[in-house]
Amino acid sequence: MIRNYFKIAWRNIVKRKVFAAINILGLAIGFGSSILIYLFLNYNLSFDNFHNEIDRIHRITTEEHRGNDVEYSTSVPPAFAKIFKEDYSYAEKVAKIVLQDGFIIDFNASGTEKKLKQDIAFVEEDFFKIFNFPLLNGSNNVSLSAPNTAIVTEEMAVKMYGDTDVVGKTFVLENDKTIKITGVLKSLPKTSFLKSELFVSFQNLTDFFEFAAGENWNGITDNLQCFALLYPKQSIAKIETTLLELPKKHRASSKNRHVYKLQPMSDVHFNPDYGGINPTLLWAFAIIGMFLIVIASINFINISTAQAFYRSKEIGIRKVLGSFKRDLFWQFLSETFIISSFALIVGLLFAYLFLPSFNSLFEIQLTFEGLWSIRFTGFIILILFIVSFLSGSYPGILISKIVPVLALKGKLSHNVRGSTNTRKVLVVIQFTVSIVLIASTIIMSKQIDYSINADLGFDKESIVMVTIPRGIDDEKFYSLKGRLEQISGVEHVSGCLSSPGASENIWTTNIKFHTRSEDEEFNVSSKLGDEDYIKTFNIELVAGRNFIKRDIIDEVLVNEKLSEKLGLSAEDMLNKQIYLNGGNIKANIVGVVKNFHDENFTKAISPVFIAPNTIAYGEIGLKINHNGINNTLSLINEKWSETFKGNIFEYRFLDEHVAEQYEREQRYLNLSKVFSGLAILIGCLGVYGLILFFVNQRIKEIGVRKVLGSSVRSILTLFSYDFIKLILIAGVIATPIAWYITEQWLREYAFRTDIKLWYFIIAIVCIMLITFVTMSYQTIKAAIANPIKSLRTE
Question: Quick check: helix, strand or coil at residue 598?
Fold first, then answer.
């Protein structure tokens, strides 16, 4: 019996090749997209789950409460780890890691002196006992307890020396410290929170970042993270309650209240408050994958029910010969299973072909190795059976209900023949999903475009940011600045900690204003830069004057946001004193600048002060003339290299860096565009199949209309009318859904574009045009055909 089902199924597929091809292609696109989404979800869900006793490992984070505002930091004060380990009995091991970028390393490889610029992780010795990142030689006994020692990854060893046999070799760090390699780590999994390739003993940190290496309680830096391996069966809530007493004991009195939290490793990759991805996005992609499968299944149902008329006599004969409804149902289901199986094979091929592009889009390295797991096999079998059942059950029920007498006489009613109302509902669902995806993509595009191209309050065009070595002294800095200013293509030069809109290298501090007795309930962000900072970045001065060149911080600029927070006008701020960094800095406000976006558009504008501090500068900003830019960059490189012999010249354009802040959103937008296009393509296949059926069904009607004088345009309008009604109904349903989805997404932005009605109208019109183009070919073909051919049987 089963063999017969499959034989008949194959014959029907071969007999109606076009409809079978449409169904297979639609389902294949759905399967292929779902497979790629599965790989993406599996990749994200497997982050950091390879460590032993992962449920006991926690990162300790800080919530900074400032009045009604809360800011989240992945760090704790440098002194926290020691107190937590020695004064409490919650953790078996506690270790800090400090991430630092842009270190120069010198080494000898095969008799050749080489240099690299590399990010460094300074780690305490228990770090590799908390996490089980295995060494290449299989031994975990190598430690970084001694100063001037390092562990490298396989990739780093090959990058430096060409092979992994590097234990005992040395390199020079920042032209100063000779470091000995004591171990080689196996390649870190791509699904690890840790991306470093070079780990140096924590004892060497004092030479490069004294604050993070010390025992300070009154500040934090996001470069430092603290991890703990808790004893089994600890109550996280109890530990966090106990930690509430630490700031009272150790931190100086401040309106900036610290609350320390224990973040499980399973949350590190998925908590957007601490820089992780938003799990809502993963759910969104999972739902999109489901929608693509549903749309493809709807195509199948629509086309299959539409074809029921073709098979009515076959079904009538089978019933007369004794077939039961269940036999007909399972026969049709077997046909659906064969088509779905073909589609799955083609979908796997599609996924394989497009996987490199998918990896490039997200800058990840997904492989098909994950497809040969028990989990994926179960997933693909489950989805195959679900799709087969969903796509085949309703048409199977419809066909099995055909009355044999009416079928053999060719007198099936229209509803039985095609289940018109059901098809209309399913088509509306297809159009609704497509309109939601298109409208959402338009609004996402508008927001990202607004974020990148809006007025940021500072100039980002033709600004080059050049990195400079840490701890530069005044003499060397101003010597280099003077030589750079002499280059004809350079208009302005400024040394700074970072650019005005940089979200990295942010130092926030408490503030006490003028004669007020207590600190304010908010912190201020620093933008350390020299006297040419506002001129180079074209930041508008709204009151007062710029500070003048000095060796100490005794004059500062502040932004309008700070005056707003203090309840004063810009003019009232002038010549008032502020106390920063716990009173260590006492300065006079000499000017107020217009607000500028000091971080990306997801964050509100912060109160900011601008002050000079040469030793803290990490970059030089240069406003250059766009003409002859390559020659200008070459001359900048030459002057820079003369000053910093033995270092590596690096630069970036500020406008590109601003755009990079929205890189993650841009990737998700691109993926949304791809899946929207696929949803539309699947929908078009379904529309094409239905139109092909309708034209064949109404070919005689078209002939009669032509004989009676109807034009091609009127016939095309006739066929378009029903679909336009369905699209308008879908638009009414889709608009509030798309509005709600995008409204929730836009809530992440402090500065956002407006949702306008015409975005949804564009989406509806797009679907109308695409549908019209899809149906035009077959309709026009039928309309221009010779009516005699279609009417000659009458």
Answer: coil
